[in-house]
Amino acid sequence: PVEGRYRLTRACLEALAAAANPFSLITRGPMIVRDLDVLQTAASRADVSVNFSVPTLDRDVWRTTEPGTAPPRQRLRALKTLVDGGIKAGVGMAPILPGLSDRPEQLEAVVSAAREAGATHIWANVLNLRPGTREHFLEHLARDWPEERERYEQLYAGRAYLRGPE
User: Cβ contacts of residue 86 below 8 Å, gap of 6+?
Assistant: First the structure.
């Protein structure tokens, strides 16, 4: 809501474009399409890319883990608009949630949708639980998926990242 009112991102993009400074953005918001003209100017002067966070297309997982955000398919439509406008735009599949959004068919759905939208790149990362994030995430996990709490505590016992085998 603050971005919609104050347009802080546009002013930052204009400053980066004026300085011919390369940059990459990560967003969940399709509102970035309103700044296509500034992104095009910046991209004509330096390396510019936009990454849309699309960790899942599963409606239940999205609604539970990203309340108040734009639906993933809306983000993909915005990605297509940017790519059609000449901007490198891709998908960041993160965080992938063990047992919730990591099934092969869920991951394949995101990759296929990203390809269909014209994504120029894709990257992925599994959930990490650093201090601060850990407490918040586990509290919500206990509320929304109580059956997963114990497994997550074992998977992330004493560490922020999964072990190699996981």
Answer: 40, 43
CA distance 147 to 144: 9
Is there a contact between 29 and 55 (Cβ–Cβ < 8 Å)? no
Q: Which residue type does 87 have? A: I
d(CA 149, CA 157): 12
Amino acid at 4: G
**For 52-93, how does the pLDDT look when each residue is reduced to its tens digit (9 = 90+)?**
999 999 999 999 999 999 999 999 999 999 999 999 999 999
Residue 88 β-bridge partners: 49
pTM of the model: 0.93
Select from 158, 160, 114 the least CA-distant residue to 137: 160
Tens digits of residue pLDDT in 86-120: 999 999 999 999 999 999 999 999 999 999 999 99
CA atoms within 13 A on the CB side of 97: 23
